[in-house]
Amino acid sequence: MTLPAAFPATPAEMSLDAAIPAFLASLKAPTTLLVAVSGGSDSIGLLSSLHDHLQADTRGHRLLAATVDHQLRRESCDEANWVRAFCAQRNIPHQVLTWTSEKPKTGLPAAAREARYRLLAQAADSLGATAIVTGHTLDDQLETVGMRMARTEGAGAPGLAGMAPATLYERRHWILRPLLSVRRQAIRDALISRNLVWIDDPSNEDRRYERVRVRQSQSSVDLQSLTEAGCLRAERSEAAARWIDANAERIADIVLRIDLAKAIEFPASTSPWGHDSAEAAALSALAAIVGGKSFRPANEALTRLLDQLAEGRNFRMTLSGTLFVRRRSELFLTRERRGLLPLSLPAHSERIWDGRYFFHNLTSEDLQIAPGGEAKIAPEIPGTIAAAMRQNRPQIQTLGTESERRSSAVHGRFHLALIDHILPGFDLPLAQALDRLFDREATPFCPI
Ligand SMILES: Nc1ncnc2c1ncn2[C@@H]1O[C@H](COP(=O)(O)OP(=O)(O)OP(=O)(O)O)[C@@H](O)[C@H]1O
Q1: How close is the Cα of 443 to the center of ligand 1, in Å?
Q2: Which UniProt keywords apply (predicted)?
């Protein structure tokens, strides 16, 4: 088994004092690390160990810390101040980031996580940090996979690889997790032996949260199976990337063409059109991207596409909002016509339209993005694809009756919903192939 890049060096459990030097050694260049510290044992262990090991480090890494005050519990402000004092004693620059906006009634853990990463990313920008570092442990990893197993479609599903050691957030900030092979108890033991204390968050024991229930039940997942799932996911991503590079071509704004005669002979196709094949991995990613979705199609739907392709006849079908049209040995993909909605683009705002285009309104005028922008239609494009193209492109309108193009005052670019918000490091090769296909700036390089 070859371990891909951005992957823990060992599938065995590690101590805190082994994991941190291994992590520091894996950094490719001098790095400014912004450590996300809640004050709990994991992040205090992470920060104190990084601080200790960096005393003797001469490679020029820098340490910063930030605490998010979610304002969900009365004690949260005191806890953030406690972390501030902990950092001050060690001369580690620290910021408290406060989540001030109104809290949702449902989905609070997910909303809090979104807010936390947004605030940490803003802090990383303002402080000039190269990467954000979190204290996720092997226990968190096993809980995550335990929860995903309850919902997933069986062995081989990408989510079973768990959290990646490096994840790119908003195509801009790498989030690194050096403690994914370390048990929470090992961190606590290390802290006790150093006479260090931490804060216990009472919501970690609250059985209303699924994560807590999973933690308190027996899990059948282990580090070995996790590592194998991670390797499998990374290998599939690489195979899909090679397949896309070799076979997919963008022939108009968001219309792809695949030469099937060539694709079937692709070297990685051990079982052409099988679920484990490179084309299945590539086509499921392309279906999500072209359709503007942040998740891949379900297995059952993907099977229908693969079965059609195996039959060899012309066909037309939709999958994940993507229209697939086969004409002899060519397969065309574009966004289907259904479900395209207008979206307001207020003055100076940034919005994503249809999961496919990002717009920044640089004007002081309220605008709207509507389906039906101009499309140049080449003669080789089949009629159904051309009809969809006339609807699926964006046009910018003023809010009055008269519509007007304002391309100079509105900045627009492709948005690939599947990978642009959160990109697990396993899928980095796939993201790089998609950058080439969509002529985008390269994905920022990973610090480890
Ligand atoms: N309030 C906070 N401020 C700063 N960092 C935090 C905060 N809460 C969590 N973190 C960071 O996230 C890591 C994981 O924390 P925890 O497991 O409590 O969060 P979570 O809600 O499970 O996060 P995720 O859902 O992203 O896994 C912590 O070790 C820490 O690095």
Answers
A1: 25
A2: ATP-binding, Cytoplasm, Ligase, Nucleotide-binding, tRNA processing
Report DSSP state, residue 438. Answer: T
Q: Which residue's alpha carbon is nearest to atom 22 within ligand 1?
A: 140
- The string of pLDDT tens digits covering residues 145-199 is 888 777 665 666 777 788 999 999 999 999 999 999 999 999 999 999 999 999 9
**Model confidence pLDDT, tens digit, residues 346-357:** 999 999 999 999
Interface confidence, given as ipTM, is 0.92
Which residue matches tokens 């809640």? Answer: 38
Q: What are the domain boundaries of the chain?
A: 16-221, 235-337+427-437, 343-414
> How does DSSP assign 351-386, residue by residue?
EEETTTEEEEE-SSS-EEEEE-------TTS-HHHH
Q: What is the pLDDT of residue 224?
A: 82
pTM, to two decimals? 0.91
Ligand 1 atom nearest the C-alpha of 179 is 29
Q: Is 38 in the pocket of ligand 1 (CB under 6 A)?
A: yes
pLDDT category of residue 9 using cuts at 50, 70 and 90: very low
Query: Cβ(42) to ligand 1 under 6 A?
Result: yes
DSSP secondary structure string, 157-182? -GGGG-S-SEEEETTTEEEE-TTTTB
Question: Is residue 87 within 8 Å of residue 64, measured between CB atoms?
Answer: no
| Fold annotation for 16-221 | Rossmann fold (3.40.50)
Task: Quote the CA–CA distance of 1 and 300 in Å, as a whole number.
Answer: 29
